[in-house]
Specification:
heterodimer, A: mainly alpha, two-stranded antiparallel sheet, globular, B: mainly alpha, three-stranded mixed β-sheet, 23 helices, 75% helix, 3% strand
Amino acid sequence: MASHSNPPKRIAVVDAALQSLKRSRGPLLVLVALILFPFVFARITGTSVNEGPAKYWQGQLIAVFIMAIFAMSYDLLLGYSGILTFGHAAFFGGGAYTMALFLAHVAPRLVKTYRVSLPGGLDITEPSVFLLAILLVVGVSLALGLLFSIVSVRVKGVYFAIITLAVAEAIHILSKATDFVKWTGADEGLHGVPVPAWINPTQYRLRFYFIALAFAVVMYWLARRIVNSPTGRIFVALRENESRARMIGYNPALFRTIAFVVSALIAGLAGALFAVWTVSATPSMTSAVTTVNALIMTILGGMGTLVGPMLGAAVLEFFGQFLYQWFGARWPLVFGIIFIVLVMFLPYGIVGTWRLRSAQWKRRWALRKQPAAAQD
Amino acid sequence: MRLTAIWKSGKVYIILLVGLIVLSVVGWRSMGQQSFVRTALSGLTLGALYFMVAAGLTIIFGLMDVLNFAHGAMFMIGAYAGWQFYTNPTFLFGLAPLVLALVAGIVVTPLIQPLAIRWAVPVRWQRTLRTATIIIAIVLVVVGLLGLDVRGLAKTAMVATMVDPLAEATPQEPLAAFWRRPALFLLAGLLIALAQARPGDRTQVVRRSAARRSIAALLGFALLTAVATLTRESAAIAVLKMNADVRFFLSLAAGALIGAAIGGAIEISLVRPLYVRPTFLILATMGLSFVLRELTQLLWDPLPYAMSRPPLFSQPGKAASILEWFSKHTLTVEIMGVTFPSYRLFIIALGLAMFVLLMIVMNYSRLGMTIRAGVQDRDMVEALGINVRRVFTLVFALGAGLAALGGIGAAPFAPVEPVMGDRFQMQGFITVVIGGMGSYSGAAIGALLLGLARAFGDFLALKFSLTPAVSEASTVIIMALVLLLRPAGLFGKKE
């Protein structure tokens, strides 16, 4: 009897863990499916995990993971904070170029001059240089995010959208300017960036697959923590009614800066990983098309949901291939028409519409169970 | 007292004027007369082009709060339409009957509305009925286009040699096979009209005067369709036989009209339903610019084309002055010791003419009055009983027409290519932001500043052996400077 009235604390903790597991059942199932995917796929096609179609589809999924995180970071601004920016490619491209430039021009020299080893004699020069690259990407992304948010404090609305577009365009023009051909490769971009051997995506495809997956999971977790935190609530409050949020006592500039910096950080890291994945950094990564891609993914999946843009990225990456097969090089035409139809008639995207509809169905279902209530 | 009043009202103008004079004196001294005049003239040319894009953009934004991302596409469409008309109009005349037939069908909306709304359609089926009608109409349009070699028609201008105009004439589909296409398009238009009439919706207000006008419009467009169907080949030949200068000015008009028509159609179909959701409006126009760019790539391949200059601007030799050019029509003109292409001077003149025209329309016409009032306070204009919806459509068409005119004006000077729209749109946006949204004189001054800055930036870049890319990127800095001082642009309305 005593144990009933006073349940041991440990069980409560386990209970809470089980509860949260139950709540995030869907994402966990997807995660398990994605972890198992390479092995199951290889078993089905009867090939090895590291070659043939298995390797190809792992590659496709890696691109999806990275783009999904990029789109998600865009949604943090557009969907949650209600900031329309057209400069998101600057973050992505900035991360990619920082990574590629560092690996191509600085890292080899560092590796040649310095040696870092653990006390046990284990040589960890390459990993620490790579870590330095990631830190550099973080720094550049933070700087870019701050730059954009400084502008956003002073200029609002449509003006701001145009300025972000212009700044991103300026960065794009500089990224393909022939003045810096020695470093950036101008129009061609940087190709064959010497990525560390242990992360080489062609050699260790499966390893890279898991790295990308882990990256996606961590970033999603981070974004979800932020969105569900009090700070995230204030983002939404700013989106819904800025003057009211300000009246309650929240500084819009501060929270917009936080949103920008977080979004820039995630986008920059996604860009850096994309640079490692393609072993290159090209001007197309900083171009407006990249921003538009993130925008399309976000709209397609549903603004204001974290899962939506990721789903949108997956749909876009896969359907893009099929559309390419069916319509040839002009498939963006079909895609553009689909996009307009979506914007006109399905403004909440896949996930948003699903949530709306499923809530309606649930209500209807509940009403059906109580015929008396259904009368009115 | 009066001096302070002048200073207050024209502060921005005075500062800009003084700044420009100081800079030009410095430039004249340090660069020397020749290079200064040449750079300034190139700057003016660029400024004129930027103004043509920015003028429509700024009016549209000022009145309707629509950030039109498809504006650059309008510029591009103007260039393509004018280029087609000038080089070989087979494509335009080949498709004209179809478009006219579709419009003839759509204009009957007010006529059938009194009947349609009395049709007893249950409320829950009305939406479905409308959607189904539109889908059938789209299917009819697709069926009407099946088998028509649109790309073949589009290619006719690409192989034009301009030696013998009659050799350019391409035989079209015989009438016996062609007639069903306009018929199908007419049917599709009628179905769209039916959907527009909202069958069963008794809340609609019916106006009898509109019905009478609609009969006239139907008859007019039907007649035009018939004429266009019959003269598909002969009209193209007639245009090609014309004097090339006349044809060039006609192509300016054709480009502007086609741009205006497409702009109006976009406003009615795409923009109007989305006024309540501004963010989605931006996204829709963005998607549209994407679609239009891809469409031109599909029709004309993603290659740049050079439109030849009309003989008016391409006689060999050099005119000693602008006056002499009027009799000789030479390729270049000498101005203050600088040999400058005469066509670029024409672009400057076109930009100036457009500015004057716009000023007249804005200051002395009823439409202009409504626009100015609407920029000030849209709700009040609506409350005064002005049909704002129609004004919106007109303004959108006007803006698109201006951009298209700029496009065809630029075509003999810049390459005609699918990305030309995006390139000028970016500069147009920056111009509008510098000048302030909603102010056409702001757009003019912004365009002037930006054009001069680009030209002198290119000059400096060359001097310090950098590429023009750096000066292109540096226009952003000008924008940032202006916005830091005046967050709403030079002449923008304050929030």
